[in-house]
Amino acid sequence: MLKGIPQILSPELLKVLCEMGHSDTIVIADGNFPAESMGKNGKVLRLDGHGVPEILEAILKVFPLDSYVEEPVSLMEVVPGDKVETPIWNTYKEIVSKYDGRGEKCVGNIERFKFYDKAKEAYAIIATSEKALYANVLLQKGVVVE
User: Fold this and answer.
1) Sheet holding 124-128: strands in order across?
2) 65-104, pLDDT tens digit by residue?
3) pTM greater than 0.70 (yes/no)
4) Where along the chain do its domains lie?
5) Which of 6, 97, 104, 135 is the most buried (most CB within 10 A)?
6) Residue 116 annotated to the active site
7) How many angstroms separate the CA atoms of 45 and 10, rounded?
8) Is 50 in the active site?
């Protein structure tokens, strides 16, 4: 165990976050996301039993968001015609606002299949047990300046 590191961040996940360089991306995927098929070219980490908000919060405590892009946090858009509410997005925006001075302005949406394309290119995908629909988040890493 380490001091100051959220316990939800496993040694394997900490290693991945540390290995990632500027502009690399990581996906925190909900329970319905096809993590294994999307992550064939990267790493898939399992955090079963946890939801996306708690993982997002823990990661952002140690992970800088990219300051060179307007929206380093991307959410999967709801497919037109799907009657789905996404209140979890407000939770994500609140969490992001705690760790990035741009607040919710640095959170954007990506069409579903474009999100899948970006997920296939991500450095890693974290598979969770999140039950909310359209609860996937893509983070783009920034530079540590401290």
Assistant:
1) 43-47, 124-128, 25-29, 137-140, 73-76, 107-110
2) 999 999 999 999 999 999 999 999 999 999 999 999 999 9
3) yes
4) 22-140
5) 135
6) yes
7) 10
8) no
Query: 22-140 belongs to which homologous superfamily?
Result: RbsD-like domain (3.40.1650.10)
31, two tokens: 């329970």
Q: Token pair for residue 88? A: 């979890």
- Residue 41 has a pLDDT of 83
Q: Give the helix ranges, DSSP H, for the chain.
A: 11-19, 35-38, 52-60, 88-99, 112-121
Question: Which one from 82, 92, 99, 116 is the annotated catalytic residue?
Answer: 116
Return d(Cα 108, Cα 81) in angstroms, integer. 20
Catalytic residue list contains 24: no
Positive or negative, the CA dihedral 38, 41, 46, 52 is: negative
d(CA 56, CA 85): 20
Please identify which of the residues 24, 30, 48, 66 carries the catalytic annotation: 66
CA distances from 13 to 2, 56, 114 (A): 14, 12, 25
Tally of CA atoms within 13 A in the half-sphere of 89 that contains its CB: 17
Specify the pairing of strand 137-140 against strand 25-29: antiparallel
